[in-house]
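BUG-501 | component: ligand-complex export | severity: low

The export step for nicotinamide-adenine-dinucleotide jobs runs without errors, but we want the raw record kept on the ticket for reference. Input record follows.
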Amino acid sequence: MADTEVEAPEETGQAYRMLIGDEWREAADGRTFVALDPYSGEGWATVPEAGREDVDAAVEAARDAFREGPWKNMTGFDRAHLMRRFADVIERDAEELAQIETRGNGKLLRETRAQAGQLPRWLRYFAGIADKLEGETIPADRPDLFVYTRHQPLGVVAIITPWNSPMALLMWKLAPALAAGCTVVVKPSPFTPVSTIALAERAAEAGFPPGVFNVITAEAAEVGAALVGHPDVAKVSFTGSTAVGAKVGAAAGANITPVALELGGKSAQLVFADADLGAVRSGLIAGIFAATGQTCVAGSRLLVHESVRDAVLDSLVERTRTIALGDPRDAATEMGPMANEPQLERVMGMIDRARDEGATVAVGGGQPSLGGCFLEPTILTEVGAGMEIFEEEVFGPVLAVGTFSDEDEAVRMANSSRYGLAAGVWTENIRRGLRVAGELDAGTVWVNGYRMVAPYAPFGGFKDSGIGRESGWRSALEFTQTKTVWVEIGEPSDRDPFTIG
Ligand code: NAD
């Protein structure tokens, strides 16, 4: 990371800079903050604490690159070429990027390796779109009119990301934005700023012109708010909690800025009596304990048919007891720590309140002897509508279990949530699988599987889980606006100026 490194006191680990235009900068007022390694609890990176001045500088750099720089005159073919080079550089450095991600959020190295390995797929998929954003020729109702459309890039995109999968969630936005010809200012979560800086460095190496990809880092929420509210931002693309998303949406709305929101979830896993219970068990574990439950699509509500409830629960509890907690870099570890102390405290508070409301702890419920940010994988029964643990996003390894007696009740219970990000349906009956998939209020439904995402498949939320879709080729269009061009091709004529058409 040669260009981004600066001297820093030893106890706060390596120091990093932000990328604004072609400069690796410290904050204008020199302030910094320290990012912690959630496994060791130690400070490992010192990062600039940007202020409003830095936000303005980053947006200005992005605006200038959009309006005046070489990027403006690049064709989709040129952009695709750069995106493929960026993909190659990421592929070369995937292991280093995975190590940085794990250091930042404590996710298992085997998962961050898979995520870093997948980043080039998004770039290559959208590179294939960059040169195919075709407008249309519209048949007109007069022979002397030629009408066509162009998809023009929106301009500066403000990208704000959370800490759970900073690189992957950034790439879901960045790849289509670059394909469309936009420039970006990214503000990662203060818990995990370094992997975004590392990606910016690689974008620069790949040859993106200065100002196309800018990064600002800050702990203060006001900095994200200043970016969202900046008048030169043409689109806001946000991933994070529903509470902050609502503020971001309101601020963008005040400026008439289009906004995409990828927010929280309380996804249901529906297990019918005819399901393959072996597959169900690994699907449920993947849904709630992979990534320590800190995924937006966490299958945090298990709705199981009453006739198989005990069989499913017993097998789930048995496997949950054997989940290996430990160092996320160790190949034998199955669950790492929570990503940060505030999140750990928030989740433990929710478990305590669930107990107070009458929930039964089937397994887990506390901190293991490892201490630190670790939390036991937890399953709670005797929960239901109206209880916080059944209604609200936990964003941790906590599964709430309810039962249903027929398909209608299962769908009703699943849809009773204010969220609608994802759902799982487990049944060997294909008719039922497709029928229920159609009925569920969720942006993604997996039938007999869970937690699959790909650059070609749209992703996003119903209801309070968000606005807009990421991935899928059409998502590139969300970074463009359509211009309609009318051309008179008949001989010049002296038309009546006081009528329309
Ligand atoms: P968060 O909402 O607290 O923060 C998200 C980002 O917003 C951070 O970068 C934060 O610094 C910034 N921010 C905070 N206040 C802001 C403001 N007023 N204006 C602009 N930016 C502001 O979320 P988090 O705790 O980092 O992440 C966890 C949440 O993210 C969960 O709710 C999870 O479900 C959600 N998430 C959603 C998806 C999805 O694709 N739907 C994916 C991953 C995570």
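Assignee comment: Attached the raw record above. The chain has two domains: 2-263, 268-447.
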